[in-house]
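Duplicate of #3305? Posting structure anyway:
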């Protein structure tokens, strides 16, 4: 691809931001409250709209239910549209009620499973009201001790729950299933890996796809292989981008390992994933850095990795691979990765009528000072609201 082609391809890339990135977050040790943090879903969407205003690349916002519960979802959707963004994926939450101590859809007690499935069905109702296309399912289900519960029976319960919710989807709606190898359960997890998610979604049908949260893998996992495999099978539904050093750190995408993000985007591009209905979401928390700039930086990091991936000389790579030129093939990839694409992305932003430096432009806009002055009183949003 030449530079104008790369620019137009990156221009089509849209990145979805999570409502929860704008609320307070922290670790189990401490949540450091920040000034100007939203008090409700309306204010979260206003902050998300700023990310889009300065990047031109983040037109949708994921909601988390019940954290983003409101009286009228159509009103919230209209509020979003008034700010130039739309509501995206509906993320379900079956991990914060006392009832879920032993799991949700895999719980041994049928009454708890019923409650969890009813919540998922309610999320589909919300999708109907907001026009959201995707229901994201992440389950905290699992066990802590060998023998605690029947691993096989838990898979049966999972399949049953998924199939009931799948049956409730309309045309144009999808169910996207996220996996995570451990935490909060430590001995067994009911959807621990892409293979389990793939097997369940394959059985369910076309409207069920897999979510790859980049932070949900063991160290050293070759995530780009998983991406290539799922794309090849038409089963890659979405990404939850973030960075990890140790566990599910939820740091900014591209911060810990920009080379990994590049390799992932290379496989996305190779597999036609830029135009295959894959939802590129961020799933992050900004514990110590300011939240809106944290999101802007993350969007820029994904754009950079994508631009570099698009710059890979496919012809030269094919030729080197076909002739067994190990070092030559590797060099083609590294050449693209080592290209400074920041001028190219600045050009793209200028074409879009945006400031070429979104971080600087946001800082100069005065928005952070404005919300810090205005958002006094009320309860700041955080996990759980
Ligand atoms: C989970 C998972 C989900 C996200 C929650 C907040 O670990 O990554 O995608 O919705 O965290
Ligand atoms: Mn996630």
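Output from current build:
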């Amino acid at each position: 691809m030449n530079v104008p082609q790369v620019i137009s391809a990156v221009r089509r890339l849209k990145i979805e931001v999570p409502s929860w990135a704008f609320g307070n977050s922290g670790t189990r040790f401490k949540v450091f409250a920040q000034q100007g943090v939203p008090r409700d879903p309306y204010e979260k969407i206003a902050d998300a709209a700023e990310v889009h205003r300065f990047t031109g690349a983040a037109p949708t916002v994921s909601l988390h239910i019940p954290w983003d519960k409101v009286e009228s979802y159509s009103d919230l959707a209209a509020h979003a549209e008034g700010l130039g963004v739309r509501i995206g994926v509906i993320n379900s939450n079956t991990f914060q009620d006392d009832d879920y101590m032993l799991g949700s859809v895999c719980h041994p007690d049928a009454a708890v499973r019923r409650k969890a499935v009813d919540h998922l069905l309610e999320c589909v109702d919300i999708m109907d009201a907001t026009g959201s296309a995707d229901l994201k399912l992440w389950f905290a289900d699992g066990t802590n001790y060998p023998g605690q519960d029947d691993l096989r029976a838990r898979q049966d319960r999972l399949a049953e729950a998924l199939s009931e919710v799948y049956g409730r989807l309309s045309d144009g709606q999808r169910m996207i299933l996220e996996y995570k190898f451990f935490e909060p359960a430590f001995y067994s997890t009911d959807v621990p890996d892409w293979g389990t998610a793939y097997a369940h979604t394959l059985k369910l049908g076309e409207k069920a796809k897999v979510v790859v949260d980049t932070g949900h893998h063991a160290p050293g996992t070759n995530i780009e292989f998983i991406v290539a495999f799922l794309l090849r099978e038409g089963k890659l539904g979405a990404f939850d981008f973030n960075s990890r050093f140790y566990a599910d750190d939820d740091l900014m995408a591209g911060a810990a390992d920009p080379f990994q993000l590049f390799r992932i985007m290379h496989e996305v591009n190779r597999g036609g994933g830029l135009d295959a209905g894959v939802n590129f979401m961020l799933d992050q928390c900004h514990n110590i850095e300011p939240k809106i700039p944290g999101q802007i930086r993350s969007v820029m990091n994904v754009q950079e990795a994508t631009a570099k991936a698009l710059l890979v000389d496919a012809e030269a790579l094919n030729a080197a691979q076909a002739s067994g030129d190990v070092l030559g093939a590797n060099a083609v990839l590294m050449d693209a990765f080592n290209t400074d694409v920041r001028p190219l992305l600045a050009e793209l932003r200028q074409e879009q009528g945006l400031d070429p430096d979104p971080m600087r432009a946001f800082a100069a806009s005065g928005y952070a000072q404005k919300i810090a002055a205005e958002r006094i009183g009320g309860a700041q949003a955080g996990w759980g609201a």
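Confirmed duplicate; merging threads. Residues 64, 91, 138, 178, 180, 213, 240, 248, 283 surround beta-L-rhamnopyranose (ligand 1) (CB under 6 Å). The mean pLDDT is 97.
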